[in-house]
Amino acid sequence: MFRAVDEHSGSAVALKILRGTGQQARFEREIDLLAKLDHPGIVRYLGHGITVQGEPFLAMEWIDGVTLRSLLSERGLDLHETLRLGIGIAGALAAAHRAGIVHRDVKPSNLLLAGGRVDQVKLIDFGIARSSAGDETLTETGALVGTPSYMAPEQATHAKRVGPAADVFALGCILHECLVGKPLFSTAHVMSPMLVPSVRVLRPDVPELVLAIVECMLSRNVSVRIADGTHALAELERVVALELPPLPPPVIATSPQARPVAREAPRARSGFTSLRGESAAQQLNHVSTCTLDVLARYVPMPMAVLRSQCERLAKDAENLSEQDLAELCPALAEAVARFTTPGSRALVLAELRALIVETPRS
User: Fold this and answer.
1) Integer angstrom CA distances of residue 90 from 106, 130, 279, 291
2) DSSP 3-state helix, strand, coil percentages of the chain (rounded to 5)?
3) Domains of the chain, CATH where assigned
4) Three-state SS at 49
5) Are 188 and 256 in contact (CB under 8 A)?
6) Catalytic entry in 105, 125, 167, 293
7) What is the pLDDT of residue 208?
8) Tens-place pLDDT, residues 154-195
9) What is the pLDDT of residues 113-164, one digit of tens each?
């Protein structure tokens, strides 16, 4: 990327020049997609052409600022900053998704903060973006497209159709990083088992409404994940309107390694012995973070009893409703009922269905 000057206006512009010919089709697609977008949260397309050396170029607005990655390397964000940042990113994604465009590489280094302000965020680099309605024809078979640390499960497993929900997952990763102080996934993790600590474990002081939204963004189940930027924006704006109390930036953790949940849960209201997170992590090694955390936090029963209850529910797990759950396993139903945020109860039910299906038989 180069800084240049527009001869007509005298304004600074950002110039992206394609070196070589191997990525010509992708470069042309980036130009085409960016030219369709006009939103204050997305770097503005100014024009394109050929340099005097015969190289294609893309001209965009020049933004004086820093990347989110640079800012997070210097300091953490408090809760209000994190939510304002999230609203800005979600707004940009909403515009892209309405235009039928999936970015596919939303990450801190692709977010510019004009003047270093989190409420002036700009989404950049549409180099691997694609039309959500079109087929992927510009990626080599088996090639991993995106950045593993911010990549949705369906994107990491080379799903044929990666939609707007993949960008929402990346937004969830960014919000998690801002709230906790370190990335959700390490580079070496590359989306293998999704047994990593949730925000609930690392920052229990984060308000429940915020936790539920982030967890919904990070669901491995695309059908219950927040669907797109428009819905993500609505959820975040609703929370900001509540004027939550201040929450300081996270204390940066010294260990970069993500570990499975392993902790003792608080006693639930019904008085049973609490399920220990360590036992759950050992015995249910295919269950996602959210499910493990929900169980360890809210289900008041020993593992043997939980396993027995899951076996009773397994006959029709895919159609499990809240009413079925209340009749067959009141303790699990009580846990689900504690989640009242729109979307969060559906998330827990979906993850619970996965738990029931995946629970090993004794």
Assistant:
1) 11, 18, 37, 25
2) 45, 10, 45
3) 2-61 (3.30.200.20), 65-240 (1.10.510.10), 277-358 (no CATH)
4) strand
5) no
6) 105
7) 86
8) 887 766 678 999 999 999 999 999 999 988 876 444 444 344
9) 999 999 999 999 999 999 876 555 555 444 556 788 898 888 877 666 789 9
Considering only CA atoms, which of 130, 325, 133, 106 is closest in space to residue 217? 106
Q: Which of 166, 222, 218 is nearest to 197 (CA)?
A: 218
Q: Would you say 113 and 121 are in contact if contact means Cβ atoms under 8 Å apart?
A: yes
Q: What is the pTM of this model?
A: 0.69
Look-up of token digits 């970015």: 103
Comparing CA positions, the residue from 301, 284, 288 lying closest to residue 362 is 284
Are the CB atoms for 168 and 223 separated by under 8 Å? no
The count of C-alpha atoms lying within 13 angstroms of the C-alpha of 144, restricted to the half-sphere facing its C-beta, is 12
Residues of the chain with pLDDT under 50: 140-142, 187-195, 253-298, 340, 342, 358-362
Catalytic, 293? Answer no
Identify the CA nearest to 53 among candidates 13, 14, 18.
18
Instruction: Give the residue from 74, 73, 222 showing the smallest Cα distance to 160.
Output: 222
